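Hi support team,

I've been running sequence recovery on a batch of backbones for a student project. Most finish fine, but this one hangs at about 90% for roughly twenty minutes before it completes. I'm not sure whether the input is malformed or the queue is just slow. I've pasted the structure tokens below so you can try to reproduce it. Let me know if you need the job ID as well.

Thanks,
M.K.
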């Protein structure tokens, strides 16, 4: 392992130096820091040009300037933005925080949804559901990101903000959404006609009941996850996670999940006064999530039978869902004053925060979430399409292997065959794709960030390239190139973890 890491470190360092040298030459050739002065009509134009040449050391050979910049970087100094005098390190620090917020949300959601839908599509190969997912995936993947962003601005922001003026869902809309939910779930679950009918009735009742409840309680005016919704979502999560992780016949795993649903309801009641009395922080919320997930793991171990790992995993995952719902509920409680301050237009179309908003920690957190909604959905739609295709193709290949047929011949339940024997091997191709995709997004979703006006890494790169400022551009390229090399190493390590046949020290 250490030998592998050392070899990859040396190869990565050499690759990084060569890439930075080439990029420095290309950027230097592409930009012209004197362009604005050449077009100037100032009487002291020549003097201004000489001053800028001296300021940027343009008389020095470009190769020598590169090594000067490289030595400066080696000391931890990324330079300054010559037009404003701002430290490049500060510019990159604020930009990468905005990009990380966007990347984390979009990647996690797209990955979970894409893998889940892709696996189900593969298991329902050549069914109506499979054909529908194939069509949807290719359709979303072919959409230009700027086109998706414009549509989201029109319908996701302007349209939804208009809806919030009079948030009434018509009876026709409720019926249509209920039928759509029943159809999708019946096609996804599949089985005999009787089973499909049962699934459609349950899914339709759940969808219609939820919409009626939201409408009857005026949820759109004062949205929150009250104890009723928390119980419903918690029971659904407990049943779903137990079904996938252990099977509903595993009573101990199901009991672990149900205990965490009850503890989640208790947590909501206990943490309400605490959240009001104590000013939280991102670190304290992260600690709360970790502690509650650890409690879920412990409950699973205490209630477990022969297979402790399954019960502990089920309890921990249910605990994660419950604590996230509790935190989301607390954030949503500040919606009415936030809605009023923004004059009934809470879904923004530009930026990553509302200027001079004020308010407490929860208001700021809600403001960050609302600014993330549109760009996150834009990235999710395209990434979801790619992950769905990857996971479907990989699952189809795995389920046709000999060891899958052997597992079925041994009489193992289909859930065990799919989850324990098929799903893990399905993740092997994704292990090489996902880390690189994540690092690519950290480099900045350039089009998305520019359309939605988020001050992230992509926008930093474009703006400074247009302003002919080489040091911020090279800082961006340094970070993205370094992360790309790290992503390849991480992909190799993850690949070795997922596939035990791979040996890094071979």
């Amino acid at each position: 392992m250490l030998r592998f890491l050392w070899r990859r470190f040396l190869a990565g360092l050499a690759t990084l130096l060569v890439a930075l040298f080439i990029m420095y030459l290309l950027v230097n050739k592409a930009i012209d820091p004197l362009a604005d002065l050449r077009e100037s009509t100032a009487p002291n134009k020549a003097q201004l040009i000489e001053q800028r040449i001296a300021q940027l050391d343009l008389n020095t050979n470009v190769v020598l300037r590169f090594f000067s910049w490289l030595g400066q970087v080696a000391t931890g100094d990324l330079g300054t933005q010559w037009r404003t005098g701002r430290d490049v390190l500060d510019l990159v620090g604020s930009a990468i925080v905005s990009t990380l917020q966007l990347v984390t949300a979009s990647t996690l959601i797209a990955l979970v949804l894409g893998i889940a839908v892709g696996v189900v599509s593969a298991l329902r190969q050549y069914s109506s559901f499979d054909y529908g997912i194939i069509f949807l995936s290719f359709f979303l993947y072919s959409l230009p990101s700027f086109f998706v962003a414009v549509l989201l601005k029109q319908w996701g922001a302007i349209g939804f903000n208009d809806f919030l003026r009079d948030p009434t869902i018509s009876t026709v809309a409720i019926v249509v959404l209920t039928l759509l939910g029943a159809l999708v779930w019946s096609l996804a679950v599949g089985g005999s006609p009787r089973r499909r009918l049962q699934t459609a009735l349950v899914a339709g009742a759940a969808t219609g009941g939820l919409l009626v409840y939201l409408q009857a309680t005026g949820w759109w005016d004062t949205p929150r996850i009250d104890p009723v919704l928390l119980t419903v979502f918690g029971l659904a999560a407990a049943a779903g996670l137990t079904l996938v992780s252990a099977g509903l016949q595993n009573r101990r795993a199901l009991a672990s999940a149900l205990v965490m649903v009850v503890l989640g309801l208790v947590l909501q009641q206990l943490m309400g006064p605490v959240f009001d009395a104590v000013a939280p922080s991102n670190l304290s919320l992260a600690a709360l999530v970790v502690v509650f997930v650890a409690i879920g793991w412990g409950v699973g171990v205490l209630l477990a039978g022969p297979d402790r790992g399954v019960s502990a995993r089920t309890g921990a995952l249910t605990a994660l869902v419950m604590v996230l719902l509790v935190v989301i509920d607390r954030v949503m409680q500040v919606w009415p004053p936030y809605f009023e301050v923004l004059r009934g237009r809470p879904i923004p179309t530009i930026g990553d925060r509302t200027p001079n908003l004020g308010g407490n920690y929860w208001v700021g957190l809600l403001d960050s979430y609302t600014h993330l909604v549109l760009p996150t959905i834009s990235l999710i739609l395209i990434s979801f399409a790619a992950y769905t295709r990857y996971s479907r193709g990989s699952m189809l290949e795995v389920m046709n292997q000999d060891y899958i047929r052997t597992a079925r011949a041994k009489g193992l339940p289909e859930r065990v065959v799919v989850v324990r024997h098929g799903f893990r091997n399905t993740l092997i191709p994704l292990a090489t794709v996902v880390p690189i995709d994540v690092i690519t997004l950290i480099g900045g979703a350039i089009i998305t960030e520019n359309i939605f006006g988020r001050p992230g890494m992509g926008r930093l790169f474009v703006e400074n390239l247009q302003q002919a400022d080489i040091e911020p551009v090279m800082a961006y390229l340094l970070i993205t190139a370094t992360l790309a090399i790290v992503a390849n190493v991480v992909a190799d390590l993850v690949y070795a973890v997922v596939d035990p046949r791979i040996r890094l020290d071979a």
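--
Follow-up from support: It reproduced on our side and the slowdown came from queue contention, not your input. Strands lie at 80-81, 86-87. No action needed from you.
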